[in-house]
Amino acid sequence: MKTKALVVEDNDMNCRLIKFVLERSNFEVLVSKSAEEAIGIAGSELPDVILMDVQLPGMDGLEATGRLKKNPATARIPVVAITAHAMHGDEERIRAAGCEGYIAKPINTRELADVIAAHLEKR
Questions:
Q1: In which domain, by residue range, is 96 found?
Q2: How many structural domains does the chain have?
Q3: CATH code of residue 30
Q4: Of 11, 51, 85, 113, which one has the greatest count of Cβ atoms within 10 A?
Q5: Which residue has the higher pLDDT, 89 or 17?
């Protein structure tokens, strides 16, 4: 059975790239362009991992992560933030929101699947 990943990313090019890389690594990939939609998909599909863009229109990815972690149905799903803002102090803010870790943009496509697999092994 394939590992199911939910990719929450509003940038079409980034979304297509992540989806392509994960599908080549034998993931089943679900896609959402907004935090609100992602919360609904996560609740109904129960993915194995969520890749959450931090900066989304409307509700941001960290608020969405907090909501997912408060819901017993989705609380155990590892959330890995995707951010272009990997500055000093951001990791603490990302982890405080409930993310298990983060991936900095631009994404290293050679390491993406391995990074996700490492987060899955931790749970």
A1: 3-122
A2: 1
A3: 3.40.50.2300
A4: 51
A5: 17
